[in-house]
Design goal:
Number of domains: 2
Structural class: alpha/beta
Radius of gyration: 23 Å
Largest sheet: 7 strands, mixed
CATH superfamily of the largest domain: Type I PLP-dependent aspartate aminotransferase-like (Major domain)
Number of helices: 13
Strand content: 5-15%
Distance between the termini: 33 Å
Helix content: 25-40%
CATH class of the largest domain: Alpha Beta
CATH topology of the largest domain: Aspartate Aminotransferase, domain 2
Number of strands: 15
Order of helices and strands: HEEEHHEHEHHEHEHEEEHHHEEHEEEH
Length: 430
């Protein structure tokens, strides 16, 4: 059933009144400027702080004060096993088996560690496929991994380009690039959701195509985790990594996570960088020579848990476990759909016809199988001054050169009234 939206405050308030997730907004700190709550639409860059985060941090600070080093073995959540609390809830969020996930490090550190294991080039099979306009960290990591392996990035890295005049990568072009690379392809590594446009890729089909030609397939899920439906295990993805500070609301630079397919977890001979927290638990504290990897994603751990950072992560993960991804995705469609409707309605009100010349051009796919909650708008004919005006009026969005405004109405804490108020400010500015 298609939702019939209205660009009125009464409609927005009615939607909020019957929203079963509306109460969760009170679980987050909404920034206040000049005595008013802002309209915060940058959860795709940094999620808001859960109010319970301070309590979770204070708990571990007190444990540290009370126990000192013995906090690793005593207290409410002994630090030695602290990371294990995340296995069950994170596996549900990413669609994995519990042994296939672990929380550790930061995103690009994890990506490089995983590339050590899953980019194993030979003279015949050495190429990597990624999407055009991949996030810079991904580009840099792939470039340097290729160089470290002794290959030329210009020859080894295949970027699936955008077609002329288009903003999103066509799925068939990715599949065609994989098939054309064939036996020369070592790895497919794509962002699950593109940071610039919000386009979500068909990870299941991409994985199948990559495996068909003998390549490993992995994804950077920075903009996907907590945002779209993921079934990494069922899709047979080889590996994935993500950060936690965007949709997962775990603080700036918060601890990240990885997924490694079960078939690779069981392969003790798979090359990897090692540290003692990836060594088998039974003999870890014997401090003996000879690395024996755990038979889980934990084998890619190198150090013990950063407990204070993980405490913030736990505050958010607990909320996700209480709400559930299905409920979040149901509201996400309604809320992002309302934002799209408001933008379309403003274009109509202002008489914008050729949006590529002047107006608000939505470059995020309209198909719900190809996007999450982000909506990216090209402000043709306006540019940065429009964005600056929005910010001055308390609309916190995100600017990307040359002229894209990115907005993410996050279902955990954004409201329909937030979206309506944004529309008021935008219409007035135009």
């Amino acid at each position: 059933m298609t939702m019939i939206y209205e660009n009125t405050l009464a409609f927005a308030k009615e939607m909020d009144a019957k929203d079963p997730l509306a109460k969760w907004r009170d679980e987050f700190h909404i920034p206040v400027v000049d005595g008013k709550e802002v309209n915060y639409f940058t959860g795709n860059s940094l999620g808001l702080q859960p109010k319970r985060a301070k309590h979770y941090i204070d708990t571990e600070i007190k444990e540290w004060a009370n126990w000192g080093v013995e906090g690793h073995f005593k207290g409410r959540h002994p630090w030695k096993d602290y990371h294990e609390m995340f296995v069950e809830p994170i596996s549900k969020i990413v669609g994995a088996q519990p042994k296939e996930v672990v929380v550790m490090n930061s995103l690009t550190v994890n990506l490089n560690l995983l590339l050590v294991s899953f980019y194993r080039p030979t003279t015949e099979r050495y190429k990597i496929i990624c999407e055009a306009k991949a996030f810079p960290s991904d580009q840099y990591a792939l470039e340097m991994q290729v160089k470290c392996a002794g290959f030329n990035p210009d020859e080894a890295i295949i970027e699936v380009a955008l077609r002329e005049g288009e903003y999103t990568v066509r799925h068939e072009d990715i599949i065609e690039a994989i098939e054309q690379a064939g036996d020369s392809l070592a790895l497919v590594m794509i962002g699950g959701v593109n940071y610039f446009t919000g386009q979500a890729f068909d990870m299941k089909s991409i994985t199948e195509a990559g495996h068909k030609v003998g390549a490993n397939v992995g994804f950077d899920l920075a903009h996907a985790v907590g945002n779209i439906k993921l079934e990494l295990h069922d899709w047979d993805v080889d590996f994935a990594c993500w950060c936690s500070y965007k949709y997962m609301n775990s603080g700036p630079g918060g601890v990240a996570g990885i997924y490694v397919n079960q078939k690779h977890c069981d392969n003790a001979d798979l090359p990897r960088f090692a540290g003692w927290w990836g060594h088998e638990q039974e003999t870890r504290f014997l401090m003996e020579k000879g690395f024996k990897p755990m038979k889980s994603a934990e084998a890619w751990q190198m150090s013990n848990a950063p407990v204070i950072s993980m405490a913030v992560h736990k505050a958010s993960v607990d909320i996700f476990a209480e709400v559930g991804m299905d409920a979040l995705l149901e509201k996400q469609k309604l809320l992002s759909g309302y934002l799209e409707f408001i933008v379309d309605d403003i274009n109509t009100q202002k008489g914008f016809e050729n949006l590529k010349e002047k107006g608000l051009e939505n470059i995020t796919p309209r198909n719900w199988n190809e996007r999450g909650c982000q909506v990216s708008i090209v402000a043709n004919g306006y540019g940065r001054p429009l964005f600056d005006h929005l910010m001055q009026q308390g609309v916190i969005a995100d600017w990307r050169e040359p002229n894209v405004i990115r907005m993410a109405p996050v279902p955990l804490y954004n409201s329909f009234e937030d979206v309506y108020r944004f529309g008021e400010v935008l219409s007035e500015a135009l």
